[in-house]
Amino acid sequence: MIHEQYTAGSLAAVLCAELDGLSEIICTGVSSLEEAESGDITFMVNAKFARQWATTKATIGIAPTDIQIPGHDASSRALLRVKDPNLAMAKVLALFDTNLDCPEEGIHESAVIASSATIGENVRIGPFVVIAEHATIGDGVTMSSNVRVGRSCTVGSHSILRSGVVIEHDCVIGEGCILNANVSIGTDGFGYCPTADMSGLMKIVHIGHVALGDNVEIGSSSCVDRGKFSATRIGNGTKIDNLVQIGHNVKIGENCVIASGTGIAGSVQIGNWVQIAAHVGIAPHCKVGDGAKIGAKTGLMHDIPAGEEWLGLPGGKMKDVLRQWSSTRKLPGIISELGKRNDQ
């Protein structure tokens, strides 16, 4: 795909940025400070990264309005001063998005679509897609190859389903969602109980469904189990990384971010704007309040009040856990000192 040609001046206008330098510099790409070449745009979030501006080959930089940029030559390069460099860079990346792996508009001849399914306008349905009975597909939906949408599912307008996505029966996908490769929505929950004679385990069938809000994104190979009864729910705007497991009847609020490798057990309730780092494990029925933050590799077995930061295994308040870790590191020295005193 050939992009519209952008200059430092036109990017400043798009980003509502203050321009410091040459407006006519042509932007040829986007890169990191370390890997940038002449013509690339890069970004700096704080003074630590700003010190690399003097040595990077990038010719356009995005920087906060309130920090000094050593080595800036306004006669040969350009700085775009903004309040939030991360947000500005996200907007620039969107301008350069290629969307290379996207089916052509229309329905591929190999797709299998039930006669009772409802298909919206301007859809892109790729090779070997299967859409089952009574499913409803909204306008502008994109489905890459080998997607399967189960019976009586709904996929909201302008959602994107990458290759290999499976949505089981009766599930609801909101508008503007992105499900990356091999995501599974609505698989049977992990539920078993011993048989009466203790000869084995009896599977507990889950008759609920999954409901995703609008603008939810789920990373590759993540799985959201259907509810045992009623729904497993994920709120508007929540973003979930790769390889995340969400158990049956979990309720996740709006605008949460959940990093890779996290496992959330059944019936957990998570509020709005919660941040969960990588490889967190959350025990069944725990409640996480609005705005809480959970550090990487935390094993959470208790409720977290709104706004608190927790860490560790078992999880605890971050400041308390960090104090414990600091004390533990001192133990060898303390034990050695005590040993010397006893030898005297």
Structure write-up:
This protein has 4 helices and 40 strands. Helix 2 links the parallel strand 5 and strand 6. The protein folds into 2 domains: 6-95, 3-Layer(aba) Sandwich (Udp-n-acetylmuramoylalanyl-d-glutamate--2,6- Diaminopimelate Ligase, Chain: A, domain 1), CATH 3.40.1390; 106-312, 3 Solenoid (UDP N-Acetylglucosamine Acyltransferase, domain 1). The chain is an alpha/beta fold and 344 residues long. The termini are far apart.
Summarize the structure.
The protein is an alpha/beta fold and 344 residues long.
CATH class of the largest domain: Mainly Beta
Give the helix/strand class. Answer: alpha/beta
Helix content: 10-25%
Instruction: Count structural domains.
Output: 2
Whole-number mean pLDDT: 94
Spell out the key features of this protein:
344 residues; alpha/beta; Udp-n-acetylmuramoylalanyl-d-glutamate--2,6- Diaminopimelate Ligase, Chain: A, domain 1; UDP N-Acetylglucosamine Acyltransferase, domain 1; 2 domains; twelve-stranded mixed sheet; ten-stranded parallel sheet; 4 helices; 40 strands; 29% strand
Topology:
Layout: E1 6-7, H1 8-15, E2 18-21, E3 26-27, E4 29-30, E5 40-43, H2 47-50, E6 60-64, E7 78-82, H3 85-95, E8 106-107, E9 112-113, E10 118-119, E11 124-125, E12 130-131, E13 136-137, E14 142-143, E15 148-149, E16 154-155, E17 160-161, E18 166-167, E19 172-173, E20 178-179, E21 184-187, E22 192-194, E23 201-203, E24 209-212, E25 217-218, E26 223-225, E27 231-234, E28 239-240, E29 245-246, E30 251-252, E31 257-258, E32 263-264, E33 269-270, E34 275-276, E35 281-282, E36 287-288, E37 293-294, E38 299-300, E39 309-311, E40 316-317, H4 318-343
Parallel strand pairs: 4-5, 5-6, 6-7, 8-11, 9-12, 10-13, 11-14, 12-15, 13-16, 14-17, 15-18, 16-19, 17-20, 18-21, 20-25, 21-26, 24-27, 25-28, 26-29, 27-30, 28-31, 29-32, 30-33, 31-34, 32-35, 33-36, 34-37, 35-38, 37-39
Antiparallel strand pairs: 1-3, 2-7, 22-23, 39-40
